[in-house]
Amino acid sequence: MSLIKKLIQLNLILITIVSPLLSSYVDANSSQKSDAELREERLGLYLKAEAITLIPWYYIAAVDQYERNIQQVRKDIPKSTGLSSIYFSSSFWHGELNPAEEDSSLDSIRFFNGHGQDGDGDGNASVRNDEDILYTMAHYLESYGQTEDDFKIALWDYYRNDKAVNQVLAIAQTYQHFRSIDLTKKAFPLPLFHDYTYRSTWGDRRGWGGRRIHEGTDIFASYGVPVRSTAYGVIEVMGWNKYGGWRVGIRDIHNNYHYYAHLSGFNKEVKEGMVVEPGVVLGYVGSSGYGKPGTSGKFPPHLHYGVYKFNGRTEWAYDPYPSLRAWERYERKQKKRG
Ligand SMILES: [Zn+2]
Questions:
Q1: Where in the chain is CATH 2.70.70.10?
Q2: pTM recorded for the entire structure
Q3: What is the Å distance from ligand 1's center to 7 Cα?
Q4: 301 CA to centre of ligand 1 in angstroms
């Protein structure tokens, strides 16, 4: 046997010995798992919480995703280390007057009117156990009932913020519509085969429309070029706005509000309240805006695309230019592959 063959064999033996160790290491450390694997495990937990409470899995999933979104942009909330991102205050979980901050005893949590529940059946309500966390949220929601209106009231009592309720609901409707939480696809807002130009203009003074800085990217193209949704989400507004003209606003599952302005008209198939996926045509490039309904032609046709992030308290604009470049590159690559 040649030396090379021997080395290859030795290698194979090593791989078979080491790989089970590697995979158990991967299991023990969730940060080593792919996002798709994490989503699959999460879905399993949501379905389990649904099975024991009759609260639809997409309501539980939506609260979890909302909390994950705000943790990514807030410094005052601890970042979760488990599969679920729902963060409970100590007073909610353990009870307002409970002196024991690490209390996981069901009896004393109940005594102090805490909401912590035991989801995995080990007799404890641990604020760090994914199944206990998700069951606690599902159990709280269940105490209001199972309809969408009940869900809204439960959310309002929990967050005391209309925008938060609206955002969680948009996530829930999107999950429910696609029967999935695996919604990662994105799209460039214009079909790539049309002629268009855009550049980074974040913070530039507006050429039109007053003194505010320019919050978005202008993509110049001809009248009538289709404008498509970039993300999965719910159409929150659709109609006339004095500045944006015919415009559409879509709330996605990552606490982003996508704003498409100055359209010449809408896709007649698309309505306010509808759930859409990336690539769905919303309307067409135009030059509407800066006047009474129907005013247009005050500037060259273009799509104004803006993105706003909600952190649970406020919403602010951030520069969509890097994302636009990334989506454009990605679609080009996909097209080449065929
Ligand atoms: Zn603009």
A1: 196-337
A2: 0.88
A3: 62
A4: 11
CA torsion sign for 321, 323, 325, 331 is negative
Which residue is it, tokens 């085969």? Answer: 193
Measured in angstroms, how far is the CA atom of residue 221 from the centroid of ligand 1? 13
Task: Classify domain 196-337 at the CATH topology level.
Answer: Glucose Permease (Domain IIA) (2.70.70)
Cα of 223 vs centre of ligand 1, distance in Å, is 16
User: What is the predicted pLDDT for the residue at 27?
Assistant: 44
47-89 residue pLDDT tens: 999 999 999 999 999 999 999 999 999 999 989 989 999 999 9
**Tell me, what's the pLDDT at 26?**
41
Give the span between the Cα atoms of 143 and 145, in whole angstroms.
6
CA of 171 to the centre of ligand 1 (A): 27
Q: Retrieve residue 176's tokens.
A: 């429910």
Measured in Å, residue 222 CA sits from the centre of ligand 1 at 15
pLDDT averaged over every residue in the chain = 90
- CA 211–ligand 1 middle distance (angstroms): 13
Q: Which helix (H) or strand (E) holds 17?
A: helix 3-28
Q: How far is the CA of 298 from the centre of ligand 1 (A)?
A: 13
List of residues 6+ apart from 177 with CB closer than 8 A: 275
CB atoms within 10 A of CB 261: 23
Inter-axis angle of helices 130-142 and 148-159, nearest 10:
110
Q: pLDDT band for position 103 (50/70/90)?
A: confident
Q: How far is the CA of 170 from the centre of ligand 1 (A)?
A: 26
